[in-house]
Each structure stands twice: as C-alpha cells, then as structure tokens.
Amino acid sequence: MPLNVTKTPEGNLLTYDADGLPVIYNLGDMAWVATATVIVGIMPIGLGLLYSGLLRRRNALSMIFLALTVYSVGLLHWFMLGYSLTYGPGNAFIGDSTWFGLVGVDIKPSPGSTAIPALLYEIYQAQFQAITVVILVAGTAERGRLAPLLILAFAWSTLVYNPVAHWVWSSSGWLYNLGDLDYAGGGPVHIASGVGSFVISAFVGKRRGYGTPQLDYRPHSSFFIALGTAFLWFGWCCFNGASNSALNLKSIMNINNTLYAGAAGCLGWTAVDFAFTRKWSAVGAASGILAGLIGITPAVGYVAVPAAFGIGLLTAIACNLATGLKRLMHVDDAVDAGALHAAGGIVGAILTGIFADSRVADFDGLTEIDGGWINGYWRVMGLQLAGVTSIVFYTAVMTYVLLFLINLIPGCKFRSTEEAEIVGIDEEQLGEFAYDYLELRRDIKSHKLYSNSPTLSATNERGRPADARTATSASHESKEGVEGRVSQVREA
C-alpha cells in the first residue's frame, strides 16, 4: 500500500498518524538530522585512530580493523533487533519485537520525537549503539583475539546497551519515568561502554610484561591520537547537536555546549599534567578534550554555556586523576576507557543534577523538567545516582557473564597467544601491517630476540639504527626471520 504523504504549501511533508490526525515534518529539521547522522559516522574511525595511536605500532592496524568491523556489527544489530528492543513498547526493562528488521518503520512519527519520521530517527539512533560497542571492545587492546569480539559486540548490544538505552530514553523505561536526566547518552553510551571495557580488560588480564621495565608501553603515534580526537570533536557536535531531532535554538545551544566543554576539558587536563610533570602533553590535550565531551553529553540539552564550561573543566580534572585507579585495581586498561568514559560519564551525570536549568531545557518549547540544584530541585541528585548505580552494576555483571560464556565456546578464547602478543596482533590476526618490517623489528627488540644480531649491535640505545646503511640492511629481514625468533622469547 502506498504511503499517504503529500506536501504542505510551505513545502513540508504532510502525513497522518494511526488516529488519522495530520502530522507535518519540517524539511529543515529532517535535513539537519540526516546530515548530522552522516557526520556522526566519522566518529568510529576517529576512535580507531585514537586507540591505534595509543597502542604500540605492531598492534596499530588491528584497532582500526576493529573500529570498522564492530561498528558494522553494531549497525546491523540495530537493524535486526536493536531499534525494537530499545524503543519498542515492551515494558519498563526492555522493548519488544514490534519493529524487528525495521518492519513498519517508515513515515510514521518516531517513538522518540514527533519532529521527524521513524525511519530517520532510527538511523540516527543506530549511530549511538554502533559507536558504543567500538568503545567497548578496546578493552582487549594488544592481547585480544578479534573474532570473539564480534560475537561479544552483538550479544552485548542485545543484553546491555538495548536494555539500558530503553531505561533512559524510552517513554516506558523505568529511569525515564523516574526522572533521571540524560540528554545524549552519558549512561547508555559512556558509563556502559566504559564499565564494560574495564571489565573486559580485567577479564583478559594484563599485557605480557606490563608494568616491567623491559617493555615500553607508550603511544606509538601522537599524530593519530590528535587526528582521531579532531574527528571525534567534529562528529560530537552533531552527536549532541541533533539529539533534539530538530533545528532550533536548542540544537544551537547543544553545539555551543559541546564545543566549550571540549575546550575547557583540554585546558583542565593539560593543567593537571603540567602541575605533576612540568611538561605539556599532546596526548593529554586530546584526553582532556574527550573527557570534556563525555562529561557534557548527559547535560548538553539541560545546561547553559557557563555551566557547560565548568562541567568540561571539572570532568577532565576528575578523569585525569581517575587514570590512577587502574593501577590501584591492578587492571591493564590500555586505552583508559574506564577513566575516560566510565568516570567521565559518572561525573557528568552528577554535575547534570547540579547544573540542569529548567529554562534552558525549554529552549525547544517542548521539554519540561524540574531542573537541578540551581533551580532548588534537590531530589534530582538521588535520581541521578540511582541511574548511575543501576547502569554500573548491571553493565559490570552482564558483561562478565557474557565474557565467561563466550570464552567457553571452542575457538572463542578472548586472550591471544603469547607468540601473537610478541609478534603483534596485526600479523597474527590480520596478516597485514600499518608499518614496515623495520619498524616491527625495532619493536620486537624490546623482547631481546636479537641479542646476537650483528645488525642490532650497531643501534643506539633507543633502538634506532646508527646509520642509513644499517637501517637498509635491517629493513630487508624477512617475515620468516622475525617469526623464527619468536620462540626465543620464553627464555629471554
């Protein structure tokens, strides 16, 4: 049956809902959300570049591969199950099967906003789920096998992200009806992915030699980190900016808050770094931007610009200090997902309870809230803490259960072999490299596999060839030569 869609004299779309009442979609709103959806699609590769830069060079390509494939799994899951489990009528805990496979999702008003049709709303929301699982799987960086992570991404989306997002954003969700304030994903996106990634890091264990002086676990590319952060900041403006599903004063306020919070976070993190080390850090600046963006995400549609600046600044300082928790808890969180996403989401949720402003929330003429502490609504902090506590506890338990069960499946062990960690996940899992064999060879030198090599005897203390001739001869060593020395590592 053809869709009943016409145009108004102003050129907007006119259709009718299930009760026969007219529904008008503004083409400007639709164009804005559609454009934002496409721009948000740059964020997964931004995450891939960021995480790749944080790792050693022989594992750089595997993280970009994961960003692309897990993002794809997240999108396909949303099409098959996720949209319906998140926004289907269901109950207070989870949706139902009404829209499995996007059946019946078309020109009708969306369950989350009547400003745009369901078909546009669902693909915009699909980006949220897909990005969340990319953050999640980074917990196995440099020591995880890739195939089990694809299974985990699908299962985790079903049993963790969809229920949590339903609690927070669905009109039948229990946190939504309780009055929890989360505008753009502090809980479902950041707290859930950060806690889940931290649990994964604990489950798979530390990287080989982590914490010992023999191995150097430092970021291999500050350029990748800065470039990935730039992509994320750009995409985040649309991630937050289009969360009200319309182009109006509220969306402009969201973009303002996003940019200023990121800038404040950059300054806050670098200031703490400088206070402790007396040095500036490009990696620290990027981390601060991300912390500020994470902190403002739950608050973005509820707070004024001065509050957004304060939230970005305070969240970045808190996240910087939170990076020490992984050492206290003896967890090798290679990309600091726990310190950034989990801690940042928690701090952002709490600060939302303080700075939420009922006047700002109503900039779209539709959103009515009691506000936060600045409006004298003291009860809101209890609601925010209820949301944080329930999401942290549920995510931690369910993530561990999924890891335990998937790890029992033959061929689905999450931890890679010792040889794979030495040679690198890129070679062992992909058979491809981000860099040439000379770079790989220098990296593996840290395992003392080349102690008898006359070539390496001519290298300086940093592992760099002493002259161009040495570099040339080293670069011609074959793949078999590298692999042949791997077996020596257990005795090294």
- Given this structure, which CATH class of the largest domain is correct? Mainly Alpha
CATH topology descriptor of the largest domain: Ammonium transporter fold
* Beta-strand content estimate: under 5%
Structural classification: mainly alpha
The CATH architecture term of the largest domain is: Orthogonal Bundle
Determine Rg (CA atoms, Å): 24 Å
Taking all residues together, what is the mean pLDDT? Answer: 88
Q: How many helices does DSSP assign? A: 20
Largest sheet, if any?
3 strands, antiparallel
Question: How many E strands?
Answer: 3
In spatial order, strands of the major sheet run: 1-2-3
Considering the protein shown, what is the CATH homologous superfamily of the largest domain? Ammonium transporter AmtB like domains
Pfam family, one: Ammonium_transp
Protein name: Ammonium transporter
Membrane topology: Multi-pass membrane protein
GO molecular function: ammonium channel activity
